Amino acid sequence: MLSSLQNCLAPAKLNLFLHVTGRRTDGYHLLQTVFQLLDHGDLLHFTLRDDGRIMRTTELAGVPAESDLIVRAARLLQAKARERQPGMAYGADIAVDKHLPMGGGLGGGSSDAATTLMALNHLWQTGLTRKELMALGLQLGADVPFFIFGHNAFAEGVGEELQAVNTPGGWFVVLEPGVSVPTAAIFSSAQLTRDTKPVIMTDFSQATDAEKSSFGKNDLQVVACSSFPPVADAISWLTQFGKARMTGSGACVFCRFEQEAQADEVLAKTPAHWKAWKAQALKRHPLADLLS
């Protein structure tokens, strides 16, 4: 039995497009999007403890351990594990190397939670299937099931209805505009349109790579740009190199390139007041093989 899992990547995601097609009676928005995994993200480290305590051993500014999705995910799985095996401790120390910004639209918190569920499900030998773990993850947030799903995906509903899809691949330059965009503020804005005509997955999957790179739009982008001018500035600057758009509800923006050298050229030209980085597209989640 393993006692630890180290250097577990919690990969970032991009929304290659994001359409808001309606709103449910409970207030949740109906979405369509394609999620793209990247080989860049937070690194999590897990070590088992025999006293049943869940301890985040890393201090994260502005994120108390009790409200951290990492800790909440571990405790949710711990409760499920104890239902199956009463009397077992199921404890863990969790350390975090935080690389993704909060409020960036990259799914950092959701990805951390998903990596925690997958890693501890394996270490604790809980035996939950991918489907069971996805259902557990949905209690923590609509994006968490995607990361457990393990593949790039066409998503519908509130983001939890997932189908695997082939994406263009390549390299992405991501700019962090230096602001944190609150998701709730974007979705509650009077500016947000909620009537984009639904597409079908084959509209995207049968497109060429070039067409996929410019497919659709991000309906949240107009709202974020209006409320947070640094987002608009970053998109405007990056657009000179290709099809630039915002991911999620912001604030980060991205542009895809076929070759790494192209991404490097853009990084070299990026103004110093922005943090910028490159990442390669992933086809599968690094921990996908831990689940059946």
Summarize this entry quickly.
Helix content is 30%, strand content 27%. By secondary structure, it is α+β, with helices and mostly antiparallel strands. It is globular and about 60 Å long.
Structure report:
The chain has a single domain (1-292), classed as Ribosomal Protein S5, domain 2 (2-Layer Sandwich), CATH 3.30.230. Helix content is 30%, strand content 27%. The protein has helices at residues 69-84, 108-123, 130-138, 144-149, 183-187, 201-205, 209-213, 221-227, 229-238, 260-269; strands at 4-23, 29-49, 54-56, 91-97, 153-156, 161-164, 171-176, 245-246, 253-257, 275-282. Strands 1, 2, 3, 4, 5, 6, 7, 8, 9 and 10 form a 10-stranded mixed β-sheet that branches. Helix 8 crosses helix 9 (229-238).
Rounded radius of gyration (Å): 19 Å
- Tell me the count of domains: 1
Question: Can you tell me the CATH class?
Answer: Alpha Beta
Task: Estimate percent helicity.
Answer: 25-40%
Please state the average pLDDT score. Answer: 96
Amino- and carboxy-terminal Cα gap = 18 Å
Report the CATH topology name: Ribosomal Protein S5, domain 2
The SS-based structural class is alpha+beta
Number of E strands: 10
User: Oligomeric state of the chains?
Assistant: single chain
What is the annotated CATH architecture? 2-Layer Sandwich
Largest sheet: 10 strands, mixed
Beta content comes to: 25-35%
Q: What general outline do the C-alpha atoms trace?
A: globular
User: Which runs of at least 5 residues are low in confidence (pLDDT < 50)?
Assistant: none
Number of H/I helices: 10
SSE order, one letter for each helix or strand: EEEHEHHHEEEHHHHHEEHE
